[in-house]
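ok trying again, last paste got cut off:
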Amino acid sequence: MIRLYFTILCCLLSPLVYGGPFAHFLNPITKQANRIDFGTKSYQTLIDKKHWVETGAITIDSFSSSEIRKESEFKTIATNTPNQFILFLECTNQVFSLDLNTKTIARLDRTYFRGDNCGSYSFIRKGQYYQVGGYGFWETNNHITYFDPQIKEWEGVSVGGDVPTAIYRGYTAYLPEQDKLITISNFSNDISQNFGSLDLMNDIFEFSFATRTWRKVGQISHPYLKDVFSKLPIDSRVRVLYTGKYFVLFPLGSKGHVTIIFVDPRDLRIYEYEDINMELSRFPFFSMTVEKPNIFLNNEWVLGTKYSNDMHLANESKLVNLHEIAKKATFIGYLTDKPWYQSNWFYAALALVLIGSLYALLRKYTRKFKPSKPDILKITTQVGSHFDELQRQLLTQFYHHSTQEGLDVVQVNEILGINQLGPDTQRFRRSLAIKELNSKLALLTGEKNAIIRVSSPLDKRQKRYQLHDHIKDFVKKELSL
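nice, full thing came through this time. structure:
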C-alpha cells in the first residue's frame, strides 16, 4: 500500500520536477496554442483553455539537451515552410530548429557566447537568422548580428550612419519588401553613465541592409502617442506585438473598454480602435507573461485564453485577427505630428506676418521721410487679433466667468463641441485647444500662462480653467466686451 501511495505521489509531482522549460507558440496552421516541454520532451496542445495535453513525443538531440536549463526562455518564430520553426534561447546565441513533421529538435549553433542580447529582436531575413540590440553585462547595445550556418557561429554586421544609442524593449520590425529595419521608442542604459539611469528615447531610426547604414527618421512627437509610450512600463514590453503590418499597443487607462493602437512602421500612421461594444472586454491582452502566457501570437492572429479556478465559471478562449480590427480603427495622425505651435507651417506663417509687418513699417517710414519708432504693441495686437470663432467664444466665456472661478471641464467641452467624444479624446482635444490659445495669448501679452488650470475649492479633484488677472483687460479690449 505504501508503495502504491508513493507511486501516485511521484506521478503527481513529476510535472513539477521534470516539466519545463517551455517554448510556447501559436500554430499558424491549426490556430491552436502549442508548446514544447523540454523537461518531458513532449509536444503539447492547450485544451479546455486551461490544460496542456501531450500530443506526441519530441526527440531532442543530446547536444541541445545539455545546454538547456530549467529557467530558460524561448522565442519561437515560424518559417515559410509549414511546420518548421526556429527557437531562439533568450540571453544566449543558441538557436534550434523545430520540425513538427518529424517531431525533432536540433541545435544549429556551436557557440558558447551568451549574456549581452537579452530582450533582442530576432527575425528571419532572406532565409538567414538575425538578432538586433538587447541588454547584458550592465548595458544596452545596438548590435546587428547574423547566424552563419557554415561556421555555426554568429557574426556582427558592420554599420555606419546615424546609429541609435541602444535598441532595447522598443518597437522593432524587419520590413522585407524594403529590406530595412525600423525601430522606435527604445530604452538606453549604461551602468557607467548617468549613475546607470534607464533612459527612454523617443527617436525613430531605420537601417538599410543594402547600404548597411542607419538613418534617423525623426522623433515621436504626436502628443497622444508620446504620452502613451512614456506611460508603458518597461516590463510590459517583454513581448512586443508586431503583426507583420502593425505594431499593436494597448494604452493604460480606465475607460472601461479596450482601446487598441495600431502603428504602421512603413509610413508612421497611427490608428485607434475603441471597443465601445465591449466585444473584447474580457480578452486577456495584458497577460503577456513568458512563464504562463494567456495569449499566443502568430503574425496578425492572437489567441487569448482566460480561465477560472471557480467550477461555476466557464473557461473562455477567443481567436482574434488584429488586421480585421485595424480596418475598423480611426486614423488619428502620424508619429511625427507636432503641436501646431511647433510645426513648420506655423513658423512659416509667423515669418510671413513678421515680413509683412516689416514691409508696412518701411512704407510708413519712406512716406514720412523721417525715422519713426515702431509701435511694437500695435503690431503685436494686429498680429494676434485673428482669433477664430471658436477661440473668441472660449475667451468670451472665460471673461464672463472670471468672477465665478472660471469654467469647469464640462463647460469647456461643450463650448468646443467635443462632449460626445470619448474621455481620452476629449482630454486630448481640450488640452490642444487650451495650449493653442495660451500660445497666441503669450505672443500678444507676454503672459505664458494666460489660461490657468486650478482645483475647485469645493472638490480638489475637479479642475477648472480661469483667465489670468493680467490679461483680463486685454481680452475685454480685444473682443470689445
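cool. The domain at 375-478 is CATH 1.10.10 (Arc Repressor Mutant, subunit A). The longest helix spans residues 344-368.
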